[in-house]
Design goal:
Chain lengths: 572, 192
């Protein structure tokens, strides 16, 4: 068998392809993005960036009911957006297997929270599989399709960042033949009118009971006997860490964490002297172990936030850890907007104005930090406009500060449009600024409805934001180029005074995907007065040395924004 | 083998670790490699954990157990010193890249001499490799990572051919030659 080094994400893609998956939909989100990027390189599987996760899952339900194996992929918070169809999908069931991949982010490397999506299984009554490396990621997705079709139920495959972004060795196999598509009306199964839904819920419980019997016997859950002194129950990457810390202990490794294999756990607990659950973030397994009346060590000692590491587990269990301490006084190196990023110009234009700014999620969220201090919030995708709307209604004319929302183009398509409609319908004085950099920047430049291209590289209609906003009922829609800072600022100021909903489309391609606008700029040290005004732009190509501004020529892309803001004309 | 790579977003840390991990796989070993993409990458500090051997469980290297740390930048070298095993080697490029808060004058930088002193005080085995400067004299600062690879190859037991083969496998054809040259130059920077 051919072996390859694949990340968990690439292994999921490989597994879906080997399983004969023919439809896959996703909205990008770290750490799940690379799954569809990888799957789209395989033949005979339709792949798309959907407009958001709810759309992706609903489309995958459609494809499943049309008889093909289908896949919906998202990051953990994406499943909140897709939660509505998730619960219905459990009632309805499947025709072709339906697998939903959620990639959780313990430690919040690139997320606004670290929710534990294993709990969605409990709430929606669907099985949850948690692989512990890339080989399992590939194997489990194939098992997931079999379970989905055997039990007429969607299956949730849960990755975490360490699984999704770690590479390990995977054996490659061929693609399986699957049945051709076939759609049939099945009213009582697929129309969730209350009368039918009641039947489906009862039926779901029956399917769930059969799954309960399955989880006790499946090889997805396995016991590895070692020393009976300590028995460890674990899942996902925590298994790898625990194996390393306790090479001799006995293990119950759960691949299918829900439904919970209570019988297997009891059997394991009886034969070990001390029982521990090692899992990341929330006590999902532990709660169910405790419900059996067993005594167990778990989150009473292990951390309830952040990622685990072998050293954390060692420390908690009283093993010796390295005495070397990290140097703690070093300056941090936080992520930053890129040299020549159009968001820099927009945030500079927003400085020193009397405003309340709802922020959103994307590269531009970094505008909340110094030197911009340009956003008041980052809540969830789409929440900039709706937040500003709520603030406006609450403050009414009790506060002179204008209400502004800043939202990226991909985020606007994802979940900003409904908020904008609400602003128009309920008439709040919110100025919405769409930071339109013509791509989904944060997650690595994926296409979206505004770019005119699909994930599979086909040309398509590029949605015109201006027309879209007008169709939402906004009469004041203005397009600006954020590289032209004064003009951008003047436009925003003008709109702040008209006291009605308006939209500014701040349009300029992401600096990483467009041609360099010009040759690197230079500071004339004779003219530079050392006033530091240019540093307020926050451009990483701008620095300060010996009381003069300095442009790092290898970083500068020649956008010219600093030329415009230098009060002395010292930058050329 | 536990090998930790660190640097700054955009320095080619990820390609460097892809090459090493693939090489270990081709050599018939079990390999795991772990890194974080996304938000963390926008000019922030980047790390990659690579482990190979008979059988590897954890994708993460524990503090105090790295056999080798490869640092593409001085501040990042010091940031991860505590990962090094007592008998481990640090190979670092003494290049410094100021973090944005330093550049903007919000935070004090620590002087290079002070950083180097901390390395000398803490470690017995460290090696400065001017990979960035070397890459620049080769006319392409982007090959800093393969210069570094050449230097690191001196501490590893893989044959040179395996490096050439893997570079050909993972680097775009038009850049293979430049990278192999950089690799050789990196080897020359470190005596056997
Ligand atoms: C529900 C949800 N899905 C996905 C993400 C991941 N994510 C964060 S921002 C973003 C899109 C950013 O694109 P855009 O709005 O165009 O801003 P840019 O990064 O280009 O500035 C994505 C996909 C998320 N945080 N929440």
């Amino acid at each position: 068998m051919n072996r390859a080094l694949l990340t968990g994400d690439e292994a999921v893609a490989r597994g879906a392809w080997e399983a004969g998956c023919r439809f896959a939909a996703a909205y990008p989100g770290t750490p799940s993005t690379e799954i569809l990027e990888s799957l789209a390189t395989y033949p005979d599987v339709y792949c798309e960036w959907s407009v958001n996760e709810k759309v992706a899952l609903e489309a995958a339900i459609g494809a499943s009911l049309a008889g093909v194996r289908s896949l919906a992929v998202m990051k953990h918070v994406g499943l909140n957006v897709a939660a509505d169809p998730l619960f219905s999908a459990a009632y309805i069931g499947v025709r072709g297997g339906l697998v939903i991949v959620t990639a959780d982010d313990p430690g919040m490397h690139s997320s606004q929270n670290e929710q534990d999506n294993r709990f969605y299984g409990l709430m929606a009554k669907i099985p949850v599989l948690c692989p512990a490396d890339s080989q399992e990621a590939k194997d489990f997705i194939k098992s997931a399709y079999i379970i989905s079709e055997q039990f007429d139920i969607p299956v949730l495959l849960r990755l975490t960042t360490r699984i999704a972004h770690s590479a390990s060795v995977v054996g490659l196999e061929d693609r399986a033949e699957t049945a051709p598509p076939n759609y049939e009306k099945q009213l009582q199964k697929t129309v969730l009118l209350p009368a039918f839904a009641r039947l489906r819920h009862r039926e779901l419980i029956l399917r769930f009971d059969r799954l309960q019997a399955f989880t006790e016997k499946t090889p997805l859950n396995r016991i590895e006997w070692g020393n009976p002194e300590l028995g460890i129950i674990c899942d996902g990457v925590a298994y790898q860490y625990a194996r390393e810390v306790f090479p001799d202990a006995s293990f119950l490794k759960l691949g299918m964490v829900y439904p919970f294999p209570a019988g297997l756990v009891r059997q394991f607990a009886e034969r070990v002297r001390r029982l521990a659950v090692i899992e990341e973030v929330d006590p999902f397994i532990e709660l169910q172990v405790r419900a059996l009346g067993l005594t167990v060590t778990g989150k009473d000692t292990l951390p309830r936030t952040g990622e685990l590491t072998p050293a954390i587990i060692r420390a908690v269990f009283g093993q010796q850890i390295s005495e070397h301490k990290a140097e703690i006084d070093l300056p941090n190196r936080p992520p930053a907007l890129c040299p020549g990023c159009p968001h820099l110009g927009l945030f500079y234009a927003l400085q020193r104005q009397n405003i309340i700014i709802g922020g959103d999620i994307g590269c531009y969220t970094l505008g909340a930090l110094p030197p911009h201090n340009g956003l008041d919030t980052c809540i969830d995708m789409g929440a900039s406009i709706t937040f500003a709307h709520g603030v406006d209604k609450a403050l009414a004319n009790q506060d002179p500060r204008s209400r502004i929302a800043v939202i990226g183009d991909s985020t606007f398509f994802h979940s900003g449009i409904t908020g904008l409609l609400n602003v128009v319908y309920n008439q709040s004085n919110v100025i919405t600024i769409i930071a339109d950099n013509r791509t989904t920047g944060m997650t690595g430049h994926q296409d979206h409805p505004g770019t005119g291209r699909t994930l599979m590289g086909k040309e398509t209609v590029a949605i015109d934001l201006e027309q879209l906003c007008r169709a939402c009922g906004i009469t004041e829609v203005v397009r600006v180029d954020p590289y032209l800072i004064k003009e951008t600022r003047n436009t925003i100021r003008r709109l702040l005074n008209i006291k009605k909903p308006a939209v500014v489309i701040s349009q300029r391609s992401c600096a990483l995907i467009s041609a360099r606008p010009g040759a690197p700029k230079k500071v004339d040290a004779e003219i530079c007065s050392g006033c530091r005004s240019c540093l307020a732009l926050g451009c990483p190509a701008l620095s300060f040395e010996q009381e003069k501004a300095l442009i790092i020529s290898t970083a500068c892309i020649g956008c010219g924004m600093c030329v415009e803001i230098c009060p002395k004309g010292a930058i050329l | 083998m536990n090998l930790l790579v660190c640097g700054v977003g955009g320095q080619g840390v990820l390609l460097f670790s892809d090459i090493l991990a693939q090489l270990a796989l081709t050599a018939g070993l079990d390999v795991k490699k772990s890194e974080v993409h996304g938000m963390a990458q926008r000019g922030g500090s980047v790390t990659s954990h690579i482990r190979w051997g008979e059988k590897i469980h954890s994708p993460l290297i524990e503090e105090g157990t790295a056999d080798i740390i490869v640092a593409f930048e001085l501040l990042e070298a010091v940031r991860y010193l505590h990962f090094l095993a007592p008998a481990g080697w640090l190979i670092y490029d003494p290049l410094t890249i100021a973090p944005l808060p330093v550049q903007l004058g919000l935070v004090e930088q620590i002087a290079s001499e002070e950083l180097e002193k901390r390395i000398q005080n803490r470690l017995k085995k460290s090696l400065a490799v001017r990979a960035f400067d070397t890459a620049r004299t080769l006319g392409n600062p982007r090959v800093q990572n393969t210069v570094m690879l050449g230097a690191v190859s001196r501490l590893l037991e893989f044959p040179d051919d395996l490096y050439y083969q893997t570079i050909k496998q993972l680097v775009k054809p038009q850049f293979v030659e430049a990278n192999i040259l950089a690799f050789r130059r990196g080897q020359e920077l470190v005596s056997k």
